[in-house]
Automatic annotation (TrEMBL):
Subcellular location: Cell membrane
Main location: membrane
Membrane topology according to the record: Multi-pass membrane protein
PANTHER family, alphabetized: CARBOXYLIC ACID TRANSPORTER PROTEIN HOMOLOG (PTHR23508)
The protein, known as: Sugar phosphate permease
Entry's Gene Ontology molecular function annotations: carboxylic acid transmembrane transporter activity
UniProt keyword terms in alphabetical order: Membrane, Transmembrane, Transmembrane helix
Species per Swiss-Prot/TrEMBL record: Saccharopolyspora kobensis
Signal peptide range in chain numbering: none
Length: 411
């Protein structure tokens, strides 16, 4: 099979802006719907009569499905184009978000969360490949980081929905309303995606006897990047999930905070999260991927340990620390869009990014379930800290085994 696109002039600025905001809106929707689940988890457990372990399993099932979705979405984007696949993915993602609100038992919840996770996973590599191909090499880190900053905005809207719904409705009803509202941002994202097209200036040729995408990714030339990138993605995301999935329930159960107090902590984390995305991209472009990831993952581990394991009663200190945790979590995440697209040539870029990020996400999905299981023995805070510290050591090791890709020109 031979696929060819011809070289053309660089896209006009209005098209670049439309691509930027379309991709931004997609990640914002991801942040909105994905972060609703940890916030709603307490109400879901109470309504459906679940155990903490079942809550962790529901979280993990969506993340495992996202691994498959990421690979499938990336492969379809390489085969049929980025924009076309994005529209399909976001439509399905919104549908299953809405259906989550109808769950009557654990089995139904598991089905809808798994299907939602599949399409959630497909969103990331497709959007990352599209934006990376439009961005200038010297600004790719900050461009992808800006796109990913939409996650913090979506998280903020989810927190607002959480606070308002729980102020007006009982906990057993509020979570259903939150997921029903999760359908609405998809309409905006779909409207913004109108009149977009894939980047026109790449030339990709595949000869009849050339390996397929998966064969090429695991051939000697790209195997190291594929395997190490996936391990890096897995351990890095496991540390992130250790914090983001369980912090709302941790604040409620071990700190004894009310809904409004928990929301206040989350607001400070969201502010730090947004700043981490925006500023982190500049750091990645300035000092390179290896040093930036090392700095930000160590910062995540230290601030997360202080937040969970060091008891200080002063409110200002805890709120400031929540913001610092949010900053480091997103600052390390801000470089992944650039790194995972820079590791691979155009013909397998979507598939490669889908494997490294989303298979990594699938492996990392065991982190919430492991924490839920271990919390019975060492407490929720202790389980979070243990997973966080182990994953940080492994993540820093893997990034130094990968090549430095700062400033790499994409084909």
């Amino acid at each position: 099979m031979t696929t060819t696109s011809t070289v053309s002039a660089p896209p006009d600025r209005s098209l670049v802006r439309r691509v930027t905001w379309a991709t931004w809106s997609g990640w914002g929707l991801d942040g909105f719907t994905n972060q609703m689940f940890p916030l709603a988890l307490g109400g879901i457990i109470a309504t459906l009569g679940l155990t903490t372990a079942q809550g962790g399993l529901a979280t993990s099932s969506a993340l495992i499905a996202s691994a498959v979705g990421g690979v499938v979405g990336g492969r379809l984007a390489d085969r049929f184009g980025r924009v076309q696949v994005l529209v399909l993915v976001i439509s399905a993602y919104a549908l299953f978000t809405g259906l989550t609100a109808t769950a009557q038992n654990f089995e139904q919840l598991l089905i809808w969360r798994t299907l939602e996770g599949f399409f959630f996973g497909a969103e990331w590599p497709v959007g990352a490949a599209l934006m990376a191909e439009y961005a200038a090499p010297e600004r790719r880190g900050r461009a992808l980081a800006w796109i990913q900053s939409a996650w913090a905005v979506g998280w903020g809207l989810a927190n607002l929905a959480y606070a308002l719904s729980h102020a007006w409705l009982p906990e057993t009803v509020a979570w259903r309303v939150m997921f029903a509202v999760g359908v609405l941002p998809a309409v905006v994202a779909l409207l913004i995606r109108r009149n977009l097209r894939d980047v026109p200036n790449a030339r990709v040729q595949r000869q009849p006897r050339q390996r397929g995408a998966f064969g090429e990714l695991f051939a000697p030339g790209l195997r190291k990047c594929t395997v190490l990138g996936t391990l890096f993605g897995a351990t890095g995301l496991a540390s992130t999930y250790a914090l983001q999935t369980w912090i709302p329930l941790y604040l409620k159960e071990e700190r004894g905070l009310s809904v409004s107090s928990t929301a206040l902590y989350i607001w400070f984390m969201i502010v730090g999260n947004w700043l981490g995305y925006v500023l982190g991209g500049h750091v990645h472009d300035r000092i390179g991927r290896r040093w930036a990831f090392t700095l930000f993952y160590l910062g995540t581990a230290i601030s997360g340990f202080l937040f969970m394991a060091v008891s200080v009663q002063a409110l200002w200190y805890n709120l400031l620390l929540a913001a610092v945790v949010g900053f480091f979590v997103s600052a390390q995440a801000s470089g992944k869009g650039a790194l995972f697209t820079e590791l691979f040539p155009a013909r397998v870029r979507g598939t490669g990014a889908g494997i490294t990020y989303n298979v990594g996400r699938g492996v990392a999905a065991f982190s919430p379930a492991l924490i839920g299981w271990a919390s019975d023995g060492i407490g929720l805070g202790g389980a979070i800290v243990a997973v966080l510290l182990v994953c940080t050591v492994l993540t820093v090791l893997f990034i130094w085994l990968l090549p430095e890709t700062k400033g790499r020109v994409l084909d």
